[in-house]
Structure formats: C-alpha cells, structure tokens
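Regression report. Comparing outputs from two consecutive submissions.

Submission 1:
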Amino acid sequence: MEITVIGATGTVGSRITTEATWRGHHVRAVSRGSGPARPGVTPVAADVGSPRALADAVAGADAVVLAVRPAAGHEEAIVGLTEPALDATAAAGVPLIVIGGAGSLRTPDNPATLVADDERYVPRAWRAVASASTAQLRACERRPEVDWTYLSPPAVLAPGERTGRYRRGTTVLLRAADGSSRISVEDLAVAVVDELENPGGERRITVSAS
C-alpha cells in the first residue's frame, strides 16, 4: 500500500511508519520539517494545518493516517489540525484513520458517562487533552461524507514492547481484569496497520493490550 502518515515524526506517527514499512508498505512521512529518506519512506515537508499543503501528500495514496498532537497548553488546536486532513482526504477520495484520544469513549460501568468526565481514568491534569479529543471526534462527525475512522487508544498510551497482540472494541473503553486500560504505542501501531490492511467498517474503534 501507499500510506500517507501525517505527523510521522511524532511518538505515534513514527511507530506507525516503522510498522507499515516493516510490513512492506511505502509511507509518505508528512511533518512540518523534512528528514532524510530511508527505505520505504519518502519524507514530505508540509504545513499539516493546511489542506492545500496536504493535497499533494494524500493524492494517489491508498490510505491516510492522521497522528498529530498539539503542544501542551494548546490542546484545543487539535480540531484545527484535523479539519485540513478531512478536507484533503475528501478531495482526494482517500480513507482516513484519525488517531484520537480516549476521552470520547464511554466508561465500561456507566455507558452514559464519557471517559473525559471520569477522574478514575482522566486525572484533572489530563482533562484538557481528553476534552480536545472529544472535540476532534465531533469535527469528524460533522463530515459524514468523508471516509474516516476514529481510533481511540485506551486510558494510558506509552512507548513499550511490540507484542503484536491487542483487543479491539468500538465506543466503550476497554479494561484488563485488574481494571487497567493501557497499550504500548508499538502495539497501537500494529492495530493501525491491521486496520489499514483489513478495514473493519466501523467509524469508531478502540484497542487495548490483550
């Protein structure tokens, strides 16, 4: 596949790029600054907040992944970084996977409550990030004509081991038997590339460690 990863130099985007190229796909690695080319990767310098700048990066791709995160204190900027990707992929007719946040998921023991509103999963220090991810999902939902999939990680996402195993759900936070909700960034990348290779058809998906 020809895959465009927007935000390819970030923590999540870099792992997705590595996983995709390891499986033999080619990645157009989009970021604000360009890095050196390497096997399977073509770096593309573009303003990720501009649909016009993204047009060439997504044209002819089989799929696009948006994996961007604003700097701390600027979490609300995520909507402004998501809408250009929606515009660009809509114009190109290319499917888009948005790597979002857990905040918009429902809590497993009270489906009426969002994870963003439950301090068991989202401490006060993370509230801005969780709220921003919910706003990001709403921006996607306002664009039903776009072929998007919104992927929510579990409550905790951190670099770690690639096991190649994970659980998959839709709109409810997934927890382990001990109550934890986490996955390594490496296994999240496995789930993303699995979804690219074999789309499940759902608009919203979530994953967690198996």
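Submission 2:
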Amino acid sequence: MATLAHIFRHPVKSIGYEPLDRVALAPGAALPWDRHWAVAHENAKFEGNPEAWQRKLNFLRGVTQPDLMAIRSDLDEATGRLTLSHPRAETITLDPMTESARLLDWLAPLWGADLPAPRNVVHVPGQAMTDWPDPFISILGTGSLDALSDQAGAPLSPHRFRGNLWVEGWAPFEEFDLIGRTLRIGAAELEIRARITRCKATCANPETGLRDVDTLALLNGTYGHQDFGVYAVVTRPGEIAAGDTVEIA
C-alpha cells in the first residue's frame, strides 16, 4: 500500500523549502503558496506580458548558484511574512513584496557578486512561478530516492529535487509507469501528465549549499536518462495530509 510520506512547498522559486502536514488542493492550481514569488536578476528579459508567467532563466536559481539550495523557509500564511535561514547567513523575517529590498540585500552575498544582481521580486496572482506555465504539482517516489541513494553510496536528501508530494510504497521509478493515470489522495484526485527532467541544481547538498553528488551522471549512467519524478494536475479538489493512502485509479 502506498502512502503520502511528505508534503513540501517552496514559497519563493529556488529559495527555501518547508514541510507541511496537510494542504487543500484546488483543480487546475499549483500547490498553495508554492513558487508564489520569484526573484528576477538584472539580466532578466521578460517576454510578452510582464504580469504573466516567465521563463526560469530570468530568476535566481540553484542550477546557477548552489548556495541557494541550502535556504530554508517558514511562511506565515495569515500575514504573508516569510522567515528564511541559511547556514552562512543570519535568519531574516519579512514580507517579500513590501520589504523586497531587504530580501534582495540578504540574497546578494549568497547569490554571488560575479552573477547578475538580484533585481526585484515577482508575483503574478493566480500563477505559480514554476518551471512551466501549467499548474503542475510534482510527485516523487521515496523508492526512487532510495535507489538513487544506493547508486550514490550515501542517503540523498529529498530537498535536492524540490518536489511537492513524496509517495512511499512504490517500486523505484514506478511513477513513470503511471503517466495518464489518476491518483486519489485524501479527498483529492490528480492526473499524472509527464516525467520531470532534472538539472544541475540537484547536485547541491541542501544542508551545505555545495555540489557534492553528480546526480545527473548517476541518473544517466544507471538509467539512461536524467528524469526524476512526475508532474500532475489536480482534477478533483480536496484536502490531503501526510499519511494518507495513495490509490491508483
């Protein structure tokens, strides 16, 4: 029997992660508050409507600077205030929109002086700043993580992969066989749509912000691809909680 082991959200794209006990899912929407904000850099070139989804290369990301991967977050939904921490920075609490200057100043030394400087915080109501404009929720299997950890010779943190929902009880990479199928979790249903191709951000250790495992080489060398996890869309609303049974329709 498969169960929902973990729920994670990432309020600012590539900047911080936090666990949740439960969350309410809505049809055609990303995980609430996930990638709610993103930080654009000074070389960003937005296409079309600047108040719409934009490509990931416009934003600060862990693939460019692995130090970002070690940021942790804690969002107060009632106030919209966000607490960020990092092993080499002071903890800060702020509203990303009204105190954006403080956020940019805090990020600057972690981002690095040799990179285009953080420029502004982006938020588009109703649009998560995920890697794709579709309202995807990412689903990953702990069995796949265990298998990749075996190849690495050491346990790998799930936070390398910035996933939303982690399912325990599937065989390694069984999630790839479920594309086109529907999952029932709690009162919600999600349809699995596509595999997730990974980038170099996953090579960074979320505890240190340093690249220490070539996850892409492990995936390509062992499995012949660099995919890990799948994208899904919510088709039926409902609350889900860690420990819920995951059923395949």
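Expected: both submissions complete independently.
Actual: both completed, but the second showed a warning that disappeared on reload.
Relevant detail on submission 2: Residues 45 and 201 are 22 Å apart (CA to CA).
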